[in-house]
Amino acid sequence: MNAIKIILQVTIAAATLATLPLSGLSAAGVSDQINAETLARIEHWVDTEFKDSSITREQQIEELSWFAKAAEPFRGMKLNVLSEPITTHRYEAEMLTRAFADITGIAVNHELAPEGDVVQKLWIQFISDQHRYDAFINDSDNIGTHSRSGKVLALDDYMKGEGRDVTLPTLDIDDFIGMSFVTGLDGKVYQLPDQQFANLYWFRYDWFQRPELKERFRRIYGYELGVPVNWSAYEDIADFFTHHVKNIDGERVYGHMDYGQRHPSLSWRFTDAWFSMAGMGDPGFPNGKPVDEWGIRIEGCHPVGSSVARGGATNSPASVYALEKFIDWLKRFAPPGAIDMTQDEAVAYHTNGNNIAQQIFWYAVYTADMTKPGLAFVNEDGTPKWRVAPSPRGAYWQNGMKLGYQDVGAWTIPRNMTSTRQKATWLYAQFTVAKTVSLKKTLVGLTPIRESDLKSPAMQKLAPRLGGLVEFYLSPARKAWTPTGPNVPDYPKLANYWWQTIGDAVSGEVSAKDALDHLAEKQGRALAVIQRKSELIKCGPRIRKASETKGEQYWLQQPGAPKPKLKNEKPPGVTVPYEQLLRAWKEGRVM
């Protein structure tokens, strides 16, 4: 793989947060200000549940004592928060709420619901101004929505202002690895990272190491079996296992796994971020500028179009190529029935089976489920027979572009609530990510948010059981994996169009080009509606009349996205040995 030149600019907002001169309590010397009973409870939690931490026992006691002291005005309150039901959030709901209540006297009802329900309930609350939940752990994919809506608390303003006295002095914003993802186009931070995971390439390392399979692959395709750098190599490997190897240890195997049911999860497969892997957008981190991985073009901070005719790329040749590959691979290389599966069904099939050779992008949030003792692809000593690596890139990808998706589930606090509830909620949000508890939460859910946790002895000890996940997160490569960015002004509305229209192409009702033309049209109309309804919205859409557009030919002749169709969309396959990749990560190189 050519070296990826990654320049991750630290946002002004994040730098500001890291150096805030906080008033009120210091996190040091607070333990002598609380009563003996509370201190005993704090020591109990530190010595039992939170023994694994990136800070010392004394620092943990002081940090938790700060929470106990800061929470005194709010004792007896009950908060309601909502998140999706992944392992990390189950741990928060079942364990951290107990610890928080025991230490602060604030009860928390931490509800769990499917991701789609979380987004729907959040948006209903915002548009109705009816207060049901005090906070949501909501994907940073919504940053473009939150930063424009006026409904979400701008956290840097809050920490410097009204929330100054309840902001943890040891929060250490610089230690979070995903702050750029929760920063709006206005430079303000709107969410606090709670859990994070990337979509990575997953493969059966043990099968790839078999001498007879390596020799057979070399004889058929003319190069080495290894981690695929580009889509051509991924396709060759998928073909190899599905149509040439066919059976391993008496079991039918397949070279690819995905899902294609007309379901909301199908939209996530694309917005999370299939087109960026193909190379549809422009270079830039954390998202392409001026055209992002949704194909939306911005001018300044204003979305101006989605279709190629308006300078967007949703229906560009690169997008058509990406969708055609998705459908082709699903039909030719995946197990029978995968095309009718949802995300959850595909994950269950993969987790409980032993017949998938590779998956082009696999949600690392399921690492905990894929490392359980007794699984067919886990060794007796607990180490996995699989590994993870960067997802391969499509034919349109260029250096300097994002290469994949990274989700940041982040605390999102409504503006429309009483100051008292806001402060109590902010305390709980910070508690779930404080250094006292964040390492243990990471060890449970394997969704790291802090650099200090990744570098901790406990995480380094666990690393051999996680198939390269820790090495990936400590490498420069992680910076090319980012969530949906601020170009998208209304994530809930626009995301719905994707699975509906792409589903038509997957089912064969329309061609990939027709489906994407329709998607670009629907997305463009939605942007225009947002513009009409919110003329005064900051950084709102500015959609020109059809007569004012410059047309497809003009834009396809300009540098960057949208890009004209390549003469050859299947260049020679390229692979690298996994050991070479791992060595590069440990040396601080992308490849």
Structural class: alpha+beta
Q: Average pLDDT, to the nearest integer?
A: 91
Please report the first level of CATH classification, the CATH class of the domain at 12-194 and 405-469: Alpha Beta
DSSP summary, beta strand count: 13
SS summary, helix count: 23
Low-pLDDT parts are 1-24
Strand fraction band? Answer: 5-15%
Radius of gyration: 24 Å
How would you describe what is shown here?
With 591 residues, the protein is of the alpha+beta class. The protein has a domain at 12-194 and 405-469: D-Maltodextrin-Binding Protein, domain 2 (3-Layer(aba) Sandwich). It is 41% helix and 10% strand. The chain contains 23 helices and 13 strands. The strands form four sheets. Strands 1, 2, 3, 4, 10, 11 and 12 form a seven-stranded mixed β-sheet that branches. It has a two-stranded antiparallel ribbon with strand order 5-13. Helix 20 packs antiparallel against helix 21. The longest helix is centred in the C-terminal third of the chain and has 22 residues, at 512-533. The model is unreliable at 1-24 (pLDDT under 50).
